[in-house]
Amino acid sequence: MTGQDGLSSSFVETVAGFTAGGGLNALPSSTRSGENKTPGYITRVLCPVCFLSSDISVFLVDRNATTRLGSSIQIVRDISRYEGGFAAFYRGLAPNLVGNSTSWALYFLFYGSLKNGMCIYRGSFSALTSFDYFLASGTAGALTSLLTNPIWVIKTRMLSTGSQFPGAYSSFTTGVKHIYRTEGVPGFYRGLVPSLFGVSHGALQFMAYDRLKVLRSHTNQDPSSLGVGHENKTRKLNNVDFLALSSLSKLFAGCATYPYQVIRSRLQTYDAPLMYRGATDAIMKVWAREGISGFYKGLGPNLLRVLPSTWVTFLVYENVKIFFT
Predict the structure, then answer these.
(1) How many whole angstroms separate alpha carbon 170 and alpha carbon 95?
(2) Is the pLDDT of residue 79 over 80?
(3) Domain 9-324, CATH 3.40.50.150 — does that match?
(4) Would you kindly state where each structural domain of the chain is located, as residue ranges?
(5) Which spans of this chain does UniProt mark as Solcar repeats (predicted)?
(6) Rounded distance, CA 187 to CA 180, Å?
């Protein structure tokens, strides 16, 4: 399929995804949690909440740590004081830039191509079912995870250690060299299994988003317009629609898949090799030490935190697509 300028849909999807991912890097890339132990090191565990959101989510390691506003303010002060001031909040920007842009570009390329294939099979985009969107999104997510997991491992380790912490990665390339030297190729794929399970987050998010787009675009129209051959009888969506629909789909997916994000985060941190033997061990330890609540710590603040990046991503993506097509 091609746009009005003869550009292929794959090209448009890739450029739109790459641009949307790059736009996320205007946001601070570091969030910390936990108790201050010593200058230059604050106990915390972070993770990119699924490559589809490229967010940084807070998970508390210390059983007595809190998520109160006062604690958050203290964490900000400690990071600024012990880790280099304002620049510390942008630690990990290089892997952020590479990871976000590459992940979104690959994801939308795969997702768009799969939807086009399903469209040809079904005969119309309007004929695609929720399961079709779920399958296309899940497959695209799995492929993207396989290709980009090394980037997220380095990013998470950079963000989970302050620049003054002994052994902390000073740059993206330093992280690559260190992991290859100390852990070999398998080190780049720590947390991959939970990531693959976590593809369900993106699958649910995009299933909901695309279905909501279809419903919204056919609001107040004859139900018969939803059939094959009636794609032109739809209203154009605007930025307010994109904001509302992306928010609803993100909230839905975030609530449904949050526990896996906690486990993946803990498996990808700098000291994970010393703490956990694998995903099963991490699950058992979280359950034993913190109970069911341990899998949902920080859910509320995280849902509020991820929405701005979701808005940026979808607004940029949709508007770039409109520009090219």
Answers:
(1) 12
(2) no
(3) no
(4) 9-324
(5) 128-215, 241-323
(6) 7
